[in-house]
Amino acid sequence: MSDWQKIVAQIANNVEEHFDSLKLHLRQRLGIGPVHILPYLGHGTRQMLYLRGRAVADYDVVAAEDNDSIWDNLLNMYRRFNSHEIPFARIQAHFGDHQAEVTANEEGFFEVRLALDTPISSEQIWHEIELELVEYDHQDSYQTTGRVIVPPDNAEFGVISDLDDTVIQTDVLHWLRMARNTFLHNSRTRLPFAGVAEFYRALQQGTQGSYNPIYYVSNSPWNLYDLMVDFFEVRGIPLGAMFLTDLGLTADHLIREDPLKHKLNSIKTLLNTHPHMPFILIGDSGEKDPEIYLRVVLDHPGRISAVYIRDVSETVRDQ
Fold first, then answer.
1. For residue 286, how far is the Cα from the chain centroid?
2. Residue 24 belongs to what H/E stretch?
3. pLDDT for 256
4. Is residue 284 situated within a structural domain?
5. pLDDT of residue 312
6. Residue 12 pLDDT
7. 244 with 267, same domain?
8. % of the chain residues with pLDDT over 90
9. Is 278 within a domain?
10. Exposure string over 189-219, b if 16+ CB within 10 A, otherwise e
11. Domains: count for the chain
């Protein structure tokens, strides 16, 4: 980011922080809206658990139905992006005898990291972490449960996959089509690519019938997280930990995180978390996945077993 972009980002960030502070103060004064913790599917090992989430108020996204109108979908999308984050909220996490307290950032996002004294069972894949939002405007504490995926010891490999135009049809290369797919549809009317569910289930099962974990690394914003999870469940696509992006303004970036940097850092995190696990990378030709994956292969020799790229160009298939 250039110097002038950093200055603009800093000014915009200061304005947004001031505006968010005023909104929060008004909500606290008027007692508007219940508070929520939105936990995102996390990941980990038998010794370490990682769980992200967001603290928000007035979260009123409605579950999608098959007969929802375009206006229903537009309204729900507005609710997703018109988020009322709770900056610097305090979150307590509990897993068995372990607990941790974290503070959310200015956008309400937080990450829990739990180091375990005793390794957890390798037979259980998904583990639950209890979350509690404490000391907010003298309201009763809010509690919910997040889930973390921990691959078994006999996993053959891990899968790192993009989402848009790899799993779900988005048309990122065409703004009007992308806007139509994103804003006028819902989790029940969005379409996967043919054979995706069967392919990903086969990868998850592997050749030995073991459980191979799948991780989704995408430049889609966290605002679409609930839509993605519901879409996966409706279409029978295996769930996995998600690494999405923040659309908020900060002093370091305008609008959202750098797409290339986000994907590279997320993949590096997974490779470092599971140093002895080989990985398969799946993406498409529309958002620099080939370039990103090539860099991963070169920077981490011997760690990537295969790379699959879906060609989304409308011209003659690339050679």
1. 20
2. helix 3-30
3. 58
4. yes
5. 86
6. 39
7. yes
8. 73
9. yes
10. bbebeeebbeebeebbeeeeeebbbbbbbbb
11. 2
Point out the residues of the chain with pLDDT beneath 50: 1-16, 18-19, 26, 29-32, 253-254, 317-319
The pLDDT value given to residue 26 = 46
CATH code of the domain containing 177 = 3.40.50.1000
Residue 281 sits in which domain range?
154-319
Confirm whether 4 is domain-assigned. no
124 and 207 both lie in a single domain: no
Buried/exposed 288-315: b ≥16 CB within 10 Å, e otherwise: bbbebbeebeeeeeebbeebbbbebeee
Answer whether 264's CB lies under 8 Å from 293's CB: no
Phi, psi of 268 (to 5 degrees): -60, -40
Using one digit for the tens of pLDDT, what is the confidence trace for 107-164? 999 999 999 999 998 889 999 999 999 876 656 678 999 999 999 999 999 999 999 9
Residue 258 lies in a domain: yes
Report the 10 Å Cβ neighbour count for 135: 9
Q: Which helix (H) or strand (E) holds 75?
A: helix 70-81
Backbone phi, psi, residue 179, to 5°: -65, -40
